[in-house]
Specification:
The chain has about 300 residues and is α/β, with parallel strands linked by helices. It has 16 helices and 7 strands.
């Protein structure tokens, strides 16, 4: 990927936030390494997708970390928050060993309490988005115009036998049934699924918690918690308003965008070029796509303090 860093940062710990499946395009990781393994080929790799690794890390975090004397990638680290406290102790005893710990996961590390409270000043945060339109064209992927509704998840482009519907149905099911439980306790998964689809109809619009709550049939507080969960997972972006008065930026409503427009199209029932062009939310779909392309290019992040939506 063009946006992948080509060296380790000048911090002992390097968390790389990815959406679920962003850095993977195969399930056999021995024959088809993840993107992080390509980036750091001489680095050990551990994934907490496997229950055995999770149990070992939770039962004896100090002993588990002592197994690694050199640099190591700890993938899906959000499943073992017990490691963060021990990581702080290990890092503080070897502050000069930059890039020794490379963490990746499908949650925003800056929004995770154990990271924000315990590892400040010890980490260099990186975020990896799905493929951009330019990256897809440079890769000479077949029929890149499908990017308009297919999105940028690597597996969708690497596996020619995989349909868009099958991929995203599995993606949403895995997120709701597994990843979501590590963030919040959702009492009714059917309500959350309905919320997810209703939220897709609000892409590119001002976020109205009360309106969402009324449409889904839950409280405003529940909607705020669920929006926060999607934001932590990197599935949505909230763009604050731009205003010269910083105080007004904090109180005005943000705009809602989906991190991958392929997922957005799936939630809206779009799986073809014709459906995209005929959809009543075409304008919002286009705005969401352009917004994410700017983020992937880095045009917004470099000046994130002054970035925001503004009425013209």
């Amino acid at each position: 990927m063009d946006r992948a860093p080509d060296h380790r940062p000048d911090k002992p710990l390097c968390p790389v936030k990815t959406g679920r499946s962003v850095d993977r395009c195969q399930t056999d990781r021995q024959e088809h390494p993840t993107l992080l393994q390509h980036m750091f080929p001489d680095t050990s790799y551990i994934t907490f997708d496997y229950l055995q690794q999770v149990e070992a890390a939770k039962e004896a975090p100090e002993q588990f970390l002592s197994l690694f004397q050199d640099a190591v990638i700890l993938d899906e680290i959000q499943y073992v928050p017990e490691l963060f406290r021990e990581l702080k102790i290990v890092i503080d005893s070897h502050r000069g060993r930059y890039g020794r710990w490379i963490m990746s996961g499908s949650q925003q590390f800056s929004l995770m309490v154990p990271v924000s409270e315990g590892l400040a000043g010890r980490i260099a945060l990186l975020r990896l988005e799905t493929l951009s339109a330019m990256e897809l064209r440079r890769s000479q992927a077949p029929d890149p115009d499908r990017f308009l509704y297919r999105g940028g998840y690597p597996e969708l482009w690497a596996n020619k036998h995989l349909t868009m519907t099958d991929y995203f149905e599995s993606y949403v099911r895995t997120y709701v049934e597994r990843d979501l439980k590590t963030i919040i306790d959702v009492k009714n998964l059917s309500d959350f699924r309905r919320f997810f689809r209703v939220a897709a109809t609000r892409a590119g619009q001002l976020l109205n918690y009360r309106g969402l709550a009324a449409d889904v049939g839950v409280s405003d507080v529940t909607i705020k918690n669920w929006i926060h969960a999607l934001e932590i997972s990197g599935l949505i972006y909230l763009l604050p308003p731009f205003h010269a008065n910083i105080g007004k930026r904090l109180v005005k409503s943000p705009k809602l965008y989906f991190g991958d427009h392929g997922l957005l199209c799936h939630l809206l029932g779009i799986d073809s070029d014709g459906q995209w062009h005929d959809h009543p939310h075409k304008g919002s779909l286009w705005e969401n796509l352009v917004m994410m392309e700017l983020i992937k290019k880095g045009s917004l992040r470099k000046n994130c303090i002054s970035t925001g939506w503004r009425r013209c």
